[in-house]
Amino acid sequence: MSLGRRDFLGLGVAAAAGVAMAPGVRLIELVQARSPEEAASALQRWGLRIDTAKCTDCEVCVTACHEENGVTGHGRPATDAQWIRKVDLRDKRTGHAQTLPLMCQHCEHPPCVDVCPTGASFKRADGIVLVDKHTCIGCRYCVIACPYGARSFIHESVTDQKPDVPRGKGTVESCTLCVHRVDRGETPACVEACNRDGGKAMVFGDLNDAAGELHQRLRKEQSSPLRPELALNTGVRYQHL
Amino acid sequence: MKSYREMMALAAGVLAASLMAAAPQAAAETKVTRVPLPTVKIEKGEKCVEPTDEMRRNHMNMILHQRDETMRRGIRTTRHSLKGCIECHADPGTHSVIGKDGFCESCHTYAAVRIDCFECHSASPRHSGSGHQSAAPGPAALGEGKQRVAAAAPAGICAP
Known about the structure:
The complex is a heterodimer of chains A (241) and B (160).
Chain A: H1 5-21, E1 46-51, H2 60-68, E2 84-90, E3 97-103, H3 111-115, E4 121-123, E5 129-131, H4 141-145, E6 152-153, E7 172-173, H5 179-182, H6 189-197, E8 202-206, H7 213-220, E9 236-239
Helix pairs in contact in A: 2-6
Chain B: H1 4-32, H2 52-73, H3 82-89, H4 103-111, H5 117-120, H6 132-135, H7 139-145, E1 149-151
């Protein structure tokens, strides 16, 4: 039997369509909790949506973050580490005030990673931007490069770290999106605290998961990144800003 | 000329005699050594994740490999992780692997190898109670530590 070119192509298309339509076969795999042996995957991209209209004048996200990650200060605001902070915005003409939590925005194109001379600042496959403190030399280029001021340098010796969150003098650190919790299938501490004790302003999820709450809400409701002109494609997006 | 058998018996006798003579001497050496030996106390579990000889020689390579796997790729298996070591080897009294009789530190002191892990990593297991209580920041400390930043209003809304 000989197949003409058209017949052959036609058969190929039909076969491909059959595979795509077959039950149990998906073009994009659904998101599931990872097992500990499994590496973070680029199929996922973790992100946050923060509704500034619901963000009240509380600090539960900040408290929960610093509690979860063992971020303690020395009572010196100029140099103490901050993983998340509340920022108050006020329109000088109208007096309209807003408040929002600001932390590492987990950019798709992170400037902190671009400038790092040792490769310590890196983006994980699932979009979480982290500092590998084993290779961080404390040069602080990333602190300067970050347009959101999200990074902190640890100036003083640290004791009583949390087992999940190593921290040490001479390295740079920032919000990890509670990567140790995310890898266990939990949500970041700030989101959990906001939804429990705060204004329920935060939603955490996978930006790539079309069925997930985060994806659905971002598709239906208007939101924007901070400083969109930088085109960093941040993983954290704000509403009603 | 003595037979082969006799020679072998003689050799075995000499060997046994020399061993018996050496044994008390070796024991005495262990006792009177000027270098304090490490205290290796195994508190938990029947055996380690790898044979003891392998662990003594290569544990640093295992945790170095696991470190990169966990940090960079998010693989969180506990077989060769530092946290796994601490879970088993933390002293039940101090909840720590460092300190004078700590599992890690006593050996590293003996070998004169500086141990950097615990500059950043907690030396206590996760639910030990120790470390957690002191690590929990009081509300006052957080209040002082936090910094409110007044940012400029977004441009373009009411610009003159």
